[in-house]
Amino acid sequence: MTIPPSPSLFLLDPLVRTSRPGEETADNKKNLLSAKEAFGFPTDLDCDELMRGMALEADLAGAPDLCRLTLRGVPPLSTCIHAVDKNLILMITSFPEVYHRDIYLIYNTIDRSLHMIPSRPSSPTRATVLTARLLVARRQDDDMCYALAFPGSVRGVGSRQEPVLFVSPSSSDSQWEIAKRAEFPDHLLAEKSDFVAKEVFSHRGRGYWMDLLLGGMYCDCVDLLSGQRSVDVRSLGLPVGCKSYLSCRDYIPEVRAFRAVGCVGDSIKFVSITGFLERVNLVDDRMLTVWRLKKDMSWDLDYEFKLGSLREEGAFKGNHLPTSMAPMYPFLSMQEDHVINFALGEYIYQDPEFCFPSTPSFWVRVDMSSKTFNCTPFSLTDASIGCLLAISGNAEGKLAWASSQANF
């Protein structure tokens, strides 16, 4: 017996399709917006005029097919999904003819509102932590009040740059006016480290900035949402047995090809696949390991298995699993505690040690609780699959599918 692809996992294309005002809506799709409002812009910018023609549409499909958003009423420039958190989708776009900075569009899937705010201020990077991602901070996961936070620096005593977290509360009409002094872990600062936080998220009242090769840092979200002037930021190491990498990243594959981190139910999990930072001659010997973050902020082994174990008689039930292909690009299923998804594909060795993904060709879903798996053909390039956003499909999840589907 095999299991179908998970209905609770969706893969969202980060590139948002755009079209100019007045262009026809394709396939009679409905506009998902019920209200539009702008905050924090100069008074001479006609925000109402900019937003008047905006419409948001969605194409929904369960993994491994892709979900895509279309934003109408904006110039045909690059518009991308910057972050997805609970009921919010943050997009970044621009109107270079009338405004010199990028613009954030925040879509709330519950009330179907769209807020437009300026992008966060720029600042020198050497005295802060490197990331391109905003943190959406909440006191609790179901709290509708939130704050956007971004590491930066301000000029301090003696012209010295001091690290801060710029904060933009959802309850404020003035954006990015708060700069809280941040005690970042010294060894993660840009002037001393190659740390780059590409995975940024909040979970159960804490905000996380993660580098899948070096570890991460976290803070209490209440410090960002309260009136106190400083934020204590603590470091978080990699799981025991998960190899760190300190050398030049140009010589290794994109880290999302073999690692992932994210929220799964009430916990945070970290995934690693062997064979990319160390040579594993047989694809069936490649190990997929999942750790769970404990309350004391240490990692505990959750489960692990070799790819070859899926083929062993009596170990798992499933359909045909292609041979000579390596596991790559792991994705966590946010609402299913013992489910892991990954791609199977060709690979090459450009170096005697480092393995590079070549052609992901199959999508595999493994349920560790029922010992079943399902393998489905799909077609994505290794460059595009590494950029996809894994999102939840539960009723209160990250795209609020029930409310959005009602509009089709």
Automatic annotation (TrEMBL):
Lineage start: Eukaryota, Viridiplantae, Streptophyta, Embryophyta, Tracheophyta
Question: Would you name any one GO CC term?
Answer: membrane
Organism for this UniProt entry: Triticum aestivum (Wheat)
Name of the protein: DUF1618 domain-containing protein
Q: Describe the location of the DUF1618 domain by residue ranges.
A: 209-340
Q: Name one Pfam family in it.
A: DUF1618
